[in-house]
Amino acid sequence: MTNATPNDLPHILLIGATGRTGRLILTSALHRGHKITALIRPSSSLPSVQTLSTIQGSPLLAADIFSALSTITGPIVIISTLGQTRTSGNPFAATTSPPLFMSASATAVVEAVRTSSANVQKVIVMSMFGTGSSWQNLNFLMQWVMQVSNMKQTLEDQNAVDGVIRGSGVRFVMPRPAMLKEQVGLPVKALGDSGEGAGFMPSISAQSVAEFMLDAVVSDEWDGKTPVLMN
Ligand SMILES: NC(=O)c1ccc[n+]([C@@H]2O[C@H](COP(=O)([O-])OP(=O)(O)OC[C@H]3O[C@@H](n4cnc5c(N)ncnc54)[C@H](OP(=O)(O)O)[C@@H]3O)[C@@H](O)[C@H]2O)c1
């Protein structure tokens, strides 16, 4: 982490601020002194805070992301914590998000960044352990669950996000957290892209992921990387 003061901290455009990890990022980023603009669906809401601007729109529309960017001056980092949702946490529960909606959003983000004159420094996207090259080091049980349950839709979407962001030419960080758990932030163990050495059933607190992603806003250590994260 650098010693940036609130005056030179990048403004964060947060997509997914109403989700589990997104809310933690929002709270911690405000605490760290970032100004935040959250792009949320018209059906969702966030509490009113002085340094938080909430803009209603769709993360799938480049025009809505472009509009949100045009309200911000100075350096910007875009953070996306969108997630495929289901009716419950059970992997077999019915999906409530369209297939490939996260990758549609990633495409929209890239288009907005390319066409906007805003000073976007990087895009930080929350991926997951199992995506891309990390599939080989996910244990057989999780591989099986992801292939036979409705988590398959999440995996397909995360793999598509990975391809869109990597192929975009936009500076990125795409952490691949292990299974999320509650608890406060714990020290983060960042493995390589493939997650070699992760062990049988690694996990990480959502708070730790939030802090890692915010550290990556002001550090170039993880630029262009997709580290597997665990506690
Ligand atoms: N769960 C795990 O163990 C785990 C582990 C590693 C990585 N991950 C990844 O981490 C990411 C974040 O997970 P999370 O549990 O923090 O997220 P989450 O609580 O499920 O939040 C989902 C977010 O996506 C938005 N969203 C869902 N469907 C949408 C749609 N059709 N259009 C627009 N927005 C939509 C939601 O907005 P609304 O509030 O408006 O619905 C919400 O802000 C996911 O990509 C997941 O794959 C999860």
From TrEMBL:
GO molecular function: biliverdin reductase [NAD(P)H] activity; riboflavin reductase (NADPH) activity
Domain NAD(P)-binding residues, every copy: 16-217
Pfam family, one: NAD_binding_10
Source species, domain of life: Eukaryota
InterPro entries in UniProt: NAD(P)-bd_dom (IPR016040), NAD(P)-bd_dom_sf (IPR036291), Polyketide_Oxido-like (IPR051606)
Record-stated family: Belongs to the avfA family.
Designated name of the protein: NAD(P)-binding domain-containing protein
